[in-house]
Amino acid sequence: MIYSEYINRETKGYTDILDITDDVKRVVMRSGVQNGIVTIAVSSSTSSIATLEFEPGLVADLRKALEIIAPVKAQYAHDEKWHDGNGFSHIRSSLIGTSKTIPITSKSLLSGTWQQIILIDFDNRPRSRKVFVQVFGE
After folding, report:
1. CB 32 within 8 A of CB 43
2. Closest residue by Cα to residue 138 from 52, 42, 35
3. Looking at the domain 2-137, which fold is it?
4. Which of 18, 93, 96, 137 has the most CB atoms at less than 10 Å from its CB?
């Protein structure tokens, strides 16, 4: 069986990090799949899907680490070509990735107790993001 659904979220940009775990769990429950996998993907070159213990300290640490790796105010060839000022967001998205796949067993995500699924929007402005969730299994 294959079941698909979108999760729509409004973001603030600039490494806005949203916990979408409960949304994904609801999609898995609606799918009726007992055992299989769920893939969570965002169709965007300036946002990512990842997992993280979603607590204020780690959220702040992730933002700080990404600022060290791909600083907002650095010079990017992308910005020189397109003049949109979001070169950093493309780099960050490329490093983290735009999808995750998680096993499902007995209708539950096979993830750690403190492992939440997060949507990260790196763009330099608020956005409406569509997260695609597809469940495969029996």
Report:
1. no
2. 35
3. Jelly Rolls (2.60.120)
4. 93
Q: DSSP per residue over 62-98, as a string?
A: HHHHHHHHS-TTS--HHHHHH--S-HHHHHHHHHH-S
Q: Are 38 and 104 in contact (CB under 8 A)?
A: yes
Residue recorded with tokens 């965002």: 42
- Structural domain spans, the chain: 2-137
Classify residue 13 by its DSSP letter.
S
- Which distant-in-sequence residues (6+ apart) come within 8 Å of 21 by Cβ? 54, 109, 116, 117
Backbone torsion region of residue 14, taken as left when φ is above 0, otherwise alpha when ψ lies between -120 and 50, otherwise beta = left
Q: What is the pLDDT along the chain (138 residues), one digit of tens a residue?
A: 999 999 999 999 999 999 999 999 999 999 999 999 999 999 999 999 999 999 999 999 999 999 999 999 999 999 999 999 999 999 999 999 999 999 999 999 999 999 999 999 999 999 999 999 999 999
